[in-house]
Design goal:
Aminopeptidase; 2 domains; two-stranded antiparallel sheet; about 35% helix
């Protein structure tokens, strides 16, 4: 494969559509890139100089959320219906999850490299998140919630799962107030790639 990853996006001789083949998508994630579509649906790959991760060893669950999770009637599943989670994450007025990217995700699901955490209430899907996995790394992509606190509880369950399975890295791309309350930090790209190398040395599985 002949492509070049620049500071913030990819360019090169390979056709952009070929980058959406599942094996090429995994390779792009493994090299620190992730896809996003702009407001017109044009898809490209990005590599920010500053990356946000949630250190698994320093994950913080706010006290109020712990109390909520003990009392709520949520049920949780892993990768039971990742495609439905993706579709619900994309249903916003402004979204970077284009139809083209949704189609590409199907290949990652079939390949076993895309997983979800799902939150159910009264047997209805009310929240969740999804991300791409490669060896010991989980690349978080998006989350949704139609019931208060559902996406936050999904994140807690994600981290529990990653620790249980021996993952090393939880990449969340960009910092938000929502993620900072859980211990998210910003790091330079070189440090991020060092974490990538360590994570990719582990042969672990989400399911």
């Amino acid at each position: 494969m002949d492509f070049v990853i620049t500071g913030k996006m990819t360019s090169g001789k390979i056709n952009k559509k070929d980058l959406l083949k599942p094996e090429n998508m995994v390779r792009m994630y493994a090299n620190g890139a992730f896809p996003m579509a702009d407001e017109y649906g044009v898809l490209d790959w990005y590599m920010p100089e500053i990356r946000t991760v949630i250190p698994l060893e320093n994950f913080n669950v706010p006290r109020s959320l712990k109390k909520f999770m003990k009392a709520c009637d949520f049920e949780y599943r892993y990768s039971l219906d990742p495609f439905e989670v993706i579709k619900k994450c994309s249903k916003r007025e402004e979204t970077w999850i284009s139809d083209e990217l949704i189609d590409a995700y199907k290949g990652l699901i079939n390949r076993g490299n895309l997983h979800s955490v799902e939150v159910y209430q009264n047997k209805k899907l009310v929240g969740g998140l999804y991300g791409v996995t490669y060896r010991g790394a989980f690349y978080g992509e998006s989350m949704f919630s139609v019931v208060s606190q559902a996406s936050k509880t999904a994140l807690v369950k994600l981290v529990e799962r990653l620790i249980e399975k021996g993952f090393e890295l939880l990449d969340v791309q960009f910092v938000t107030d929502h993620l900072m309350m859980f211990g998210a930090i910003e790091i330079g790209f070189d440090e991020f790639m060092k974490m990538q190398i360590k994570a990719q040395s582990k042969e672990v599985y989400f399911i």
